[in-house]
Structure formats: structure tokens, C-alpha cells
């Protein structure tokens, strides 16, 4: 059997290393590799993959987390509400999808006081995290910094959308979540950028917590500025680890169940 991680482009994804270590530790004869699929070939390559008799499971990353949602069965309530998938597994010739990312995000911020939450970026990760937080924390207030419009099905929720050039105040925010690639090494143009300026962080409340889903590199510009002003900063490493552990646990449970049958 084999597993993959699907995305485009892929830059030495951490999942390959984590999954290989897990399979070796558990003495499972399962391979793991990265599979870059160009957007123009997505449908064909996905069908080819899932029809392969030896295919077991795959991690899903940018830019396919939202796109793959319509190709799989989603039974998990949290994953269904997120409308985004980052893990698929084949069971009885059917493909089931989950969003273990959002569970990792929830675990990363579970101990933080967070009545007022700001989310920067409304791509695949930003929308999934917002939808999940709205589902879990129904009475909280959300501010989304994005040029996109508020989805129709979220009209009645406590969410305000504001464009990036009009976002000038952090004084009422308890938790800021960076869901953009700014600061990451996905592309050279992101590497030395930050979603927040020094001026904004200087005027923020001292109890503000910054949660950055970026985990590579560990130290970003946002990280450095946050520490300069004594603000708590959490990167995406724990979130990434938790999501991988949940995915691997589902694989292990499937293998155990298959052996029993």
C-alpha cells in the first residue's frame, strides 16, 4: 500500500517525514511520497490515484483543500462544516475526507481567552478555520481581514469583513490568527512579509495572542515583531503535528480493523 501528499507546488512537505517515521515505528509496509499535481490535471490525476488498488490515504494541501471537498464523502461534523478537506482515506473502494487541520487549530488555541477573534486571510485555511470557530464558539465575535465578501450562508453570524487597507485597530482583539502565507517559505515574495505592522502591534492590548498557522520557517517577521512588543506568539507547528497525528491514527485504526476482518 502507499500514501501521498497532494498539492502544487510542494516544497519538502513535513507530512512525508512524519508519516514515514510513523509507518516505520508501527512496522507497517506502507510507503509515503509527495505528489505534485498541476491544477489543469487535478481531476484526471485524482481519479487515477484513487482507482489504484494499492492507494490507501493522502494528505491534501494547497491549492486543493476546498476543491477536493466535492469528490469525497464527509461524515465528520467538524470537517463537513469547514467545507475543506486536508486528509482522505480509501475504505471499501470509497473515499472519505476529513479536515484534521481545524482540529489542530482548535487544540492550539483552546486555552486562550478569545471573545473577539480576528482572522487575516480568507483562502482555504482561513475559511475553514472561520467556519469551524463559528460552529464551536457561536457567541464569539469575528473580524475577517480580506478583500473577499462575506459568504451568504454566514450572513446571520457575528462576523464582520473588512478590507486590508482599512484594518487599523487591534485594541479590541483578543486573538489574531494569520491564515495567509505571509512569512512562509512557500514563495520568496512571502518570506520577509508580515500581516501586521509594528504600529498595529505597538497599539495592541498586551494580552493579545498571535496564532500564526505558518510553521516553516519557525521564526517569521511576525514572530520577531510580536516578541519585540511582549506579545504571545504561537506558530503553526503544533497545529501541523496534531493534524498529522489524527490522520495517522485513522490510518492505523483502519489497518487494525482490516486485519480483524
Give the amount of beta strand, in percent. 15-25%
SSE class: alpha/beta
> What strand line-up does the widest sheet have?
8-7-6-9-10-11
Distance between the termini: 17 Å
Task: Summarize the topology.
Layout: E1 2-7, H1 14-25, E2 31-36, H2 42-50, E3 55-60, H3 77-82, E4 87-91, E5 94-98, H4 100-109, E6 116-120, H5 124-136, E7 141-145, E8 159-162, E9 175-178, H6 198-202, E10 209-212, H7 221-228, E11 232-234, H8 237-260
Parallel strand pairs: 1-2, 1-3, 6-7, 6-9, 7-8, 9-10, 10-11
Antiparallel strand pairs: 3-4, 4-5
Helix pairs in contact: 1-8, 4-5, 4-8
Written account of the structure:
This protein has about 260 residues and is α/β, with parallel strands linked by helices. A hairpin with a 2-residue loop joins strand 4 and strand 5 (about 95-100). The protein contains 8 helices and 11 strands. The longest helix is centred in the last third of the chain and has 24 residues, at about 235-260. It has helices spanning about 15-25, 40-50, 75-80, 100-110, 125-135, 200, 220-230, 235-260; strands at about 1-5, 30-35, 55-60, 85-90, 95-100, 115-120, 140-145, 160, 175-180, 210, 230-235. Helices cover about 35% and strands about 20% of the residues. The strands form 2 sheets. A 6-stranded parallel beta sheet has the order 8-7-6-9-10-11, sandwiched between helices. The protein has a 5-stranded mixed beta sheet with strand order 2-1-3-4-5, covered by helices on one side. The model has no long low-confidence stretch (mean pLDDT about 95).
